[in-house]
Amino acid sequence: MLKTFxxxxxxxxxxxxxxxxxxxxxxxxxxxxxxxxxxIGAPSxxxxxxxxxVKAGQLIAKSTGFVSANIHSSVSGKVLKIDKVLDTSGYKQxxxxxxxxxxxxxxxxxxxxxxxxxxxxxxxxxxxxxxACGIVGLGGATFPTHVKMSVPPGKxxxxxxxxxxxxxxxxxxxxxxxxxxxxxxxxxxKLIQKAIGAGKVLxxxxxxxxxxxxxxxxxxxxxxxxxxHALKVQYxxxxxxQLIKAVLxxxxxxxxxxxxxxxxxxxxxxxYAVYEAVQKNKPLFERVVTVTGKSVxxxxxxxxxxxxxxxxxxxxxGGLPEDTGKIVNGGPMMGKAVSTDTVPVTKGTSGVLIxxxxxxxxxxxxxxxxxxxxxxxxxxxxxxxxLKNMTVVKMYEELQAQHALDCMECGSCAFTCPAGIPLLDYxxxxxxxxxxxxxxxxx
Length: 443
Hints:
Elements: E1 23-25, E2 31-35, E3 45-46, E4 53-54, E5 59-62, E6 71-72, E7 77-86, E8 92-100, H1 123-132, H2 145-148, E9 159-163, H3 173-180, H4 182-196, E10 200-206, H5 210-220, E11 226-231, H6 240-248, E12 263-267, H7 268-280, E13 286-292, E14 300-305, H8 310-316, E15 324-329, E16 336-338, E17 351-356, H9 373-377, H10 384-392, H11 396-401, H12 412-416, H13 423-442
Parallel strand pairs: 1-14, 9-10, 9-12, 10-11, 13-17
Antiparallel strand pairs: 2-8, 3-5, 4-7, 5-6, 7-8, 13-14, 15-16, 15-17
């Protein structure tokens, strides 16, 4: 019997139209807009100015704290300006805007096709290289990877859990990376394993990717202490707590972190980025993005430079369909709609999803009928209808008591609600206001 997490979850239609499509490169844009905040934590500080000439892989914004990440140029060219640009969050933020002039990379980057497997370096050197190259979690959370690699004093990491689940419908970028870069991923896993001192590496892959399970399992045989676990298809299995429960049957406590149960979780794409950083000295300035949708002519997995406007990716996938109603950054469950197709690709852009008009509008809302489906679907064991009501009447102390901050914002509650109530929107609002109150109390 396939493993999975026992509590809640849903099974949306998968719609993996781009599965099996090789990763393709597209032509460089004429201009990129690179945000200085593409990660959880403090925004980076620009270290270039208008008129400066830069190369691909050159540091252009330096991290400003431990929980922060360096930003590198994805192209070679001249800095046009540093200005506010609308990003995928819907807000304007500081971006370094570069006019592209060719494609000259930093000489320190190894651009050869040779696979390198040199892990005869210290844990500290691995962490320093990962930090210098600006690696963040590529599963969507964009948490700085060097921070996750720094196991707190008094804690022990027994297992590195690699999230290769890709449970969001439509998205296939991680799937294709596994098919094309399995050995490099394994080396990246060994590097992370060494950095955190874990005894074993456990790779979780959902059973709707049998080719990836076979390929990764075969490749893992060349390495010690790496296991591939086939998992039942169940959304949101890619959540850290759900994945740990599925592969190890360990329960992360409320308000706790994976390290509290001896685990560190990293995305499979992040493992590949760690390989490139440590073995090839390549900063994170490009990533694989799935461009897909029911009406998209050519669903694709595209290797895109950071800062590229998403309309270039859409054009490479056959152009914007005539019946387009909405463009979503990410997957349909946790992604967010964008207001324009000129927003730039960032480190956290896993997908560009194009919904046709007939799928782009929300259902009509009705009164809650107390059916309890949202509570049954919640993988964290919360009561979404109750959290929604508490948000409406601003009962923030009660929200905290009901563990609202444990909500992982997976959207399972809204997906199952027969009344069409946007439960997740209310809970996000409640969490945001609660966090403001908690921060004010601390200060």
